[in-house]
Known about the structure:
Blueprint: E1 2-11, E2 14-24, E3 29-33, H1 40-47, E4 55-60, E5 63-64, H2 69-74, E6 76-79, H3 91-101, H4 106-120, H5 135-147, E7 153-157, H6 165-178, E8 183-188, H7 191-197, E9 200-205, E10 208-213, H8 215-223, E11 226-233, H9 240-244, E12 249-258, E13 261-268, H10 275-284, E14 288-294, H11 299-307
Parallel strand pairs: 3-8, 3-9, 6-7, 7-8
Antiparallel strand pairs: 1-2, 1-4, 4-5, 9-10, 11-13, 11-14, 12-13
Helix pairs in contact: 3-4, 4-5
Amino acid sequence: MIEVQHLTKRYGRVTAVDDISFRVERGEILGFLGPNGAGKTTTMRVLTGYMPATAGRTLVAGFDVFDQPIEAKRRTGYLPETPPLYPEMTVREYLTFVARIKRVPAAERTRRVGAVMDRIRVSDVAERHCGKLSKGYRQRVGLAQALIHNPDVLILDEPTAGLDPKQIIETRELIKGFAGDHTIILSTHILPEVSQTCQRVVIINKGKVVAIDTPANLTSRLRGSEAMYVQVDSGGATVETVLAGVAGVTKVTATDHHDAITGYEVESTRGRDVRRELARAVIANGWGLLELRPVRMSLEDIFLSLTTEEAPAEAIEPADATPVAESSHE
């Protein structure tokens, strides 16, 4: 539904986006992550036709954003970081205006505006001027204008920036409800938002894509091994030697200790499930097995690992990734 092929954007001598490629499948919510200044907003602006690329190609619903801009834009809804509202218009007037310029048929405009206001939950402020709305309502009206023509694709740039916790939760639930009906790129640097909303992530750093995958897959691939947390009531006995002797275990580290209860992080060969063997070893020695669970890297750990100075030079891509065709507009 969305395909980015070797996209590059330069501002003079500065390369903001450097030869990035990725695709988003129909009905998917893709998180587009990166630190401030990484090139996220520039990529969003190229995807929406707001600015041209220096090189590369972008397709939306099969239409080239450069060669077929009108067709691509008809299928795209865009919420920039600052919603494009007219303060002197009421919410209803503004959405009716947007419906008209996005060519929603005249016979459907009233119904469509009402339906979108109900869906985004802004009907209670329909007659209020946009300039007098709270930050949360402005974001919602911005979402409504992106949805008014029922586009195939939604591109949302920092949709919860500046919202309070309650508004963030409400906006997040709205976005999750769009999945399936719309293909969504969600650009943000708020990591919990991605982990709770998106099926896959693209992480960009200094204009380059450094990872494309699901958070779960990134966890195992970055760690390079499997890890389990084991908590044992050993009555003062030393457990590390026994756990280290389990087949497939590569490292055992004590992480916490309280009286006779000790917790261990046990690493094993990648792809090797040692839970049964660990449980058997603990029980066979007469110790109490209090906890046994996988240890996952958080999305914060993944993000920091890939966007710091020590980040890997090559992008981490899914094993089944297929190359995109080369094409460019200079």
